[in-house]
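name: query_chain
kind: protein
chains: 1
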Amino acid sequence: MFDINGGELLIIVVLAVLLIGPERLPGYAAQLASLVKRGKRLLQDTKARVDTELGPEFKDVDWSKLDPRQYDPRRIVRDALMDDDDGPAPAPRAAAAGGTATAAATSASDERRAAVPAPFDDEAT
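structure:
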């Protein structure tokens, strides 16, 4: 969160001891501890209130799926292309002349297209 490593934290503690002094340091440490406890209690109360107001329907929601950092447009497109739709198949187009032979050829090509999955390009954007 603050992106402070151990050496930087040590420098901050040494500076705090030198600037504040050993007399006032315990008082400031106690104030900091109470502030952290109050913040923790506030977050817990807020979480409990949100849970009660949303109700039991939202307790089993997987919020990690809605995380925008998980957004991958390639996966979304792949899932949409590979999704099996159980809806009605489109009616074959009727031809003006020789309707039976053309309709049979059209339905055969539709069956071939449905049997072969669409190509997937990993490098496409």
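note: Residues 25-54 form the longest helix (30 residues).
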